[in-house]
Predict the 3D structure of the following.
Amino acid sequence: MAKPHRYAVHRSWDREYHTIERTDGVYLYDTDGRRYIDATGGSSVVVSIGHGVKEIPQAMYEQARKFSFYPTHAFSNKPLQELCDLLVHLGPGEMKDHSRVWVTCTGTDATDDAVRLARQHWVEKGKAGKHVVITRWQAFHGNNIAVAGFSGLTVRRAMFTPMFVDSPHIPPAYCYRCHYEMNRSSCGLKCARALDSILRQVGPENVAAFIAEPVVGAALGAVPAPDGYFQTIREICDKHEVLFIVDEVMTGLGRTGKMWGMEHWGVTPDIIATAKGITSGYTPLAAIIARDEVWEPLIANNSPFKAGHTLGANAVSCAGAIAVLNYLQEHNLVSAAPRWARTCWIK
């Protein structure tokens, strides 16, 4: 086995990492001439349109020729504005054409910013006691210290437990290994109703938001919630004045055969965090999309959103995202996905 590279830090200290030289469609090629099928779209469902689609780097190159970096606190840019228009128009349910978009760098930033927005919404609305975020075990929402506090993937969070503010967790919607050892036919969606129980224990006056993935990715391996689950979650959140955040970093923008994973349940969240598929992995970018009602207290109090990174809303990345979303629509990839899946199943 070849020795690992001396200076680059990888996930493992002792394994050989073959060096990728180029990509094309579903294939990756290394410097030794080996060809690999990228059957998982980048190992965490990133590359939704395939590798080497020439329109994407071309769009980014054309923007880079004009300018790449600009100070986001002082200026805007057309790719950012066009991308936000596009995302709002693609929004699910009641969010379509009735929401606003904040653009950042990574999926972790998006879930962190979604929680920031939920907190600021309640502060600006005069309910500063609402600060707790409730989530689920067997959930993964990103990889910084703060997000680890509300993620539920124990192997990623255990070492850092003394460093973050922990959040209340409810069991996952995982029928195969039900936390309550019940059957779906008779459980009454107890895993969803657990949210109501913990809200009453913590006190809804203290809870800002509940966050969940429509289909759990890294922590369970493509596990969707059962029918009725998110409808029940939506009702509980509304009853207790809690914002419902959906982590669509993996499922958003066509990965499940609909534009948004939550559309399978016919439920509209208050805030969506999305990344990965927004640029199909061609460049880092992420966003949060939130209903107009969530932003209104900030606007009314002239309170700028308390988030942001130096490289957020990068013009080159926004241009790449626009090209990806246009490619998705022009080639009908979202509507084609379930047809393709059914064909494979029949065969």
Summary: The longest strand covers residues 99-104. The radius of gyration is 21 Å. The first helix runs from residue 41 to 45.
